[in-house]
Each structure stands twice: as C-alpha cells, then as structure tokens.
Amino acid sequence: MKLEPGNYAVIFTSTRTDVDTDYLETFEHLMSLAKEIDGFLGIESARKGLGITVSYWRDKESIELWRRNADHVIAKNRGRQDWYKSYTSIISKIEHCSGFEK
Amino acid sequence: MKLEPGNYAVIFTSTRTDVDTDYLETFEHLMSLAKEIDGFLGIESARKGLGITVSYWRDKESIELWRRNADHVIAKNRGRQDWYKSYTSIISKIEHCSGFEK
Fold first, then answer.
1. Nearest to A50 among B46, B91, B101 (CB)
2. What predicted TM-score, i.e. pTM, was given to this entire model?
C-alpha cells in the first residue's frame, strides 16, 4: 500500500457486544465490496478488547462512494443494533508518512 | 477524549520481532511521558499480529514536542534495533468525527 500526502485515513474504533451472528461474514463481504471502490487503497485491523480498523482512501470522493454503498449502509444499521456497544469514526487527511522495515 | 476538526491523529502500525526485553516497561514509561505533553489528547491501541496504535494531539506543535522528547528518541532507536520487524507512522489531520454509544 502506497500512501501519499492528501490521501485519507478513516479510523474506526469500536467495542463489541457479545452478539456474533453474521458479524465475520458481513465484515468479509464488506471488505470484498470496499476493494472494488475506485480510490480504495487498503485496510488494517486489530482488536484487543478495543477494535481499531484503519482504511485508506485516495480522496474524500472515494470515502463518500463507500459511505453511500447500500450494503455498507445496511451493515452499519445492523452494527448499531447488534454488534457494537460503541464506536467512533474519524476521517483524517494524511500529511506525512514514514516507515521502517528490517 | 474530545476531538475536533483540526486536531491530529498519529497512526502507528507495527509488526513485532520476538524480542520482548524491556518492551512493555518502555511502552508504559513512554505513555506516562506522552500524557504530560501539552496538547496530548489520548491514545488507543490494539494488536492481533499487526499492532495499531493511534495517538491524538491538539496540533502539529504538540506532536513535534513529543517527537523530540529524549526518552522517545531513545525508545525509537531501541524499537528499530530490537522490537519491531516493521512499522509505519502516519500523521493525519482530523476533518470529521462521528460516533455511536449504546
């Protein structure tokens, strides 16, 4: 994944309920749909009690396309109803990237 | 933690080596130092293979203060030498926050 200043990161942090029904299937289905969005750059996810998922986008327009995706809208409603105790979603514009690899 | 547009998120993703010596102690020491930085707003962390730590800052100046903190500089060198196989660090400016809580 190659990120540049001006690209966007969406930081989604969440705490889960104990309802697991359809959760993983829906997550995987949504991932396959997100990857088809023009401007989707990548996604990274980790959980340890708190879940953090960061998705990366070329620009605001690509985030907006994803935000309006019908299956995504349905999943968000289902998420509020069943899977999540709480979440926050932060849209941020990338200014600087650095890295290290052994 | 109250975030506003114009605040900053630093997204640190990493993969670890199997060297654990001093890792947790250093992480906790650095957290206590970061909290003392004027403009530090909060931090969230999760790991599942990949680790994702997001720290939140009032502005770029507070990130810069933290970036130059002597113990932080030492820990970064140690991190590259011992604890991390790879990492990326992304500085991004928050444009929009939303959330949900049951």
1. B46
2. 0.94
Indicate yes or no: CB of A49 within 8 angstroms of CB of B48. Answer: no
Chain A residue numbers with beta carbons less than 8 Å from the beta carbon of B88 are: 97-100
Q: CA of B55 to nearest chain A CA: how many angstroms apart?
A: 11
| pLDDT class of A1 with cuts at 50, 70, 90 | confident
Evaluate the CA torsion angle B83, A94, B36, B97 in order and state its sign: negative
Exposed / middle / buried, residue B27 (Cβ in 10 Å: 0-12, 13-18, 19+): middle
Which residue segments constitute the domains of chain B, with CATH numbers given? 8-93 (3.30.70.100)
pLDDT digits (tens, 9 = 90+) for A69-93: 999 999 999 999 999 999 999 999 9
